Amino acid sequence: MSTWGGPVDVILTGGRVVTPGGVLENGWVSVRDGRIAAVGEGVAPDGPVNDVSGCTIVPGFVDIHCHGGGGDAFTSPDPAKVRRAASAHRKHGTTTLLASLVSRPVPELADQVSALAELTQEGVVAGIHLEGPFLSAARCGAHDPAILCPPEQTSVTKLLDAGKGTVRMITIAPELEGAVQAVRQLVDNNVLAAIGHTDATEAQVRPAVDAGASVATHLFNGMRPLHHREPGPIGALLDDDRVTVELICDLVHLHPTAVRLAARHAGRKRTILITDAIAAAGVGDGVYDVGGLEVRVVDGVPTLAGGAALAGSTLTMDVAFRNAVNSCGLTLMEAVYATSTRGAELLGLDTGKLQPGCAADIVVLDAELKPRDVMVRGEWVKD
C-alpha cells in the first residue's frame, strides 16, 4: 500500500461523524497539515471538499494485539515482510498497531524485538507486544509449552533492553514464580503489564493487578473458565475497574452474548477489541507457521494442526467493528471507543478520536460499514 504523495488539506462533508461527544448525522471533518483542524455539523466551512454522503466517518482503528497479516508475520527477520503485514491491516482501516510476538526462547525473542525496534522507530508499527514466553503451560493455546518460562528479572530486562523503549506491553500469567515482581518491573519501565494465558485463581490474580497489571489479554480465551464458586482470572479482571479487557470480536473466539456481557460490564472506558490476527489475515485458508507450530486455517478459522485449539484469528479490525455493531449490540460510539479510542489512550498516542488537534487517522466507512477510504496522518492510502 502506498500514499498519494503527502498530506492533503480537505474537508470531509455530508457523512455521519462519530465524535467523542456524540454522532453528528450531517457532519464534517476538516483536515490540515496531517491533523484534524475542526469537526462540526451542518454547513461545512469553505475549502477543498470531499463529499462522503451516506458514509460513516470514524477514527483509524488501533489494534494492540496483532501477529501479522497479508501472508506475513511480525516474527519475520525481513523488514519488507513486516511492512507488508502492517500494510495488509492498514487497508482495512488499522492505522496504528502493536506487533505481537509469540513465545520463543528469550535470546531468539530478543533478536526479534531488536529487529522490530528499528521498524517501530520508522513508524511501521507503534510498538511491540510480547505474548509470552511468561505464560502458563496449562493454558498455553498456540504457544509451544516447552518454551514457556517464569518471568525472571534478567529475562525481562534482556527483552526490554533489546526493544530500546519500543516494547509497549508484555503478557504474563500471574501465578508464575516472580510474576508480581515482573509486573512491577514493567510498570516501572512504562510498559503495560497484561494478564493472560493463565490458570490462576482469583486470589492469584489480585496481587498482580495491585502491582499495576492493567490489561486482560483476550479475556475468556487462554484462561481458566469463569465459575460461580471460583471466578478465576475472568471474574477478577472483568470486575476490576483498573483493568482494560481485550475481546477478540470475530464471533469464533467469543459468542456475541459474551462480547456484549463483557462490554456492558466493563463499559466503554475498559473495553478494547483486538484481532489477535496471524499471517493468514487477508489471505485465506492454508497452512501457516505460528511460533514454530503448524497451524491450519480452514474456513477462516486457524487451529493447531492435529487439534482443535484456536491459534489466533484471521480477523481485521473493520470486521471486528461491524461485528460489534451488527451482532453484539454495541452502539457506534461504543464500537469506536473499543476499536480506536481506548487503544490510543492505553498507548498514550495522539490518535483514536475525531477531535481538533488529533492526528488525522481516519476511516470512511460505506453504508455497510466497510472501509471506502483510509487516511493516515493526513495522507490518503491506496492499494
Automatic annotation (TrEMBL):
GO biological process, one term: N-acetylglucosamine catabolic process
EC number: 3.5.1.25
Keywords, ordered alphabetically: Carbohydrate metabolism, Hydrolase, Metal-binding
CC cofactor: a divalent metal cation
Gene3D superfamilies: Metal-dependent hydrolases, Urease, subunit C, domain 1
Active-site residue numbers: D276
Binding-site residues for Zn(2+), renumbered to this chain: E131, H197, H218
Domain of life assignment: Bacteria
Molecular function GO labels: metal ion binding; N-acetylglucosamine-6-phosphate deacetylase activity
UniProt xrefs under InterPro entries: Amidohydro-rel, GlcNAc_6-P_deAcase, Metal-dep_hydrolase_composite, Metal_Hydrolase
Domain Amidohydrolase-related intervals: 56-381
Co-factor binding comment: Binds 1 divalent metal cation per subunit.
Record field: catalytic activity: N-acetyl-D-glucosamine 6-phosphate + H2O = D-glucosamine 6-phosphate + acetate
Pathway: Amino-sugar metabolism; N-acetylneuraminate degradation; D-fructose 6-phosphate from N-acetylneuraminate: step 4/5
Pfam name, any one: Amidohydro_1
Transmembrane segments: none
Annotated substrate binding sites: A142, N221, G222, R229, H253, L310, A311, G312
NCBIfam families, sorted: nagA
Family affiliation: Belongs to the metallo-dependent hydrolases superfamily. NagA family.
This protein's name: N-acetylglucosamine-6-phosphate deacetylase
Highest classification ranks of the organism: Bacteria, Bacillati, Actinomycetota, Actinomycetes, Pseudonocardiales
